[in-house]
């Protein structure tokens, strides 16, 4: 399995320049999305992130240190990064099941009169997205010796869907 490295990880490792953007983190906050901060690392100014040297999973949104939109400093290890980009052996998905379910939900909304089916597809998408991210976080935490918490399974997705996503869908399905 070591010879089958995730290409996103390979790119992250060779460039070490990805960053959590301000607009993405703002969207997480606005939606009360429980995936943040669990799915991001804190920056590691020591430069040893590739070897687990001090890098760890963020514990708060503020710990992520986001890259400002349009004006980031071009420095390695300066901003928090997605733990998914450090999932060395997690499966590579060109298009994931949860992305297909999001597309299905949108198509059902656009067909009109199929909102019940659309809501079910949307819930399936959210649940699968959480489970997929959980797998990447576990992989990154295990590989890079992060002190990582991956509590993003189906029960967390269910609560998030009911509390945050479903009201938005009910107000405006698209």
Helix/sheet category: mainly alpha
Number of helical elements: 5
Q: What does the average pLDDT come to?
A: 83
> What is the N-to-C succession of helices and strands?
HHHHH
List unreliable stretches of 5+ residues: 49-54
SS elements, strand count: 0
Characterize the structure shown.
This protein has 174 residues and is mainly α. It is 47% helix and 0% strand. It is built from five helices and no strands. The chain is globular, with a radius of gyration of 17 Å. The termini are far apart. About 3% of the residues have low confidence.
In brief:
The chain contains 5 helices and no strands. With 174 residues, it is mainly alpha-helical. It starts with 6 loop residues before the first helix and ends with a helix.
Note the main attributes of this structure.
174 residues; mainly alpha; 47% helix; globular
Give the topology, please:
Blueprint: H1 7-15, H2 22-30, H3 97-111, H4 115-144, H5 154-171
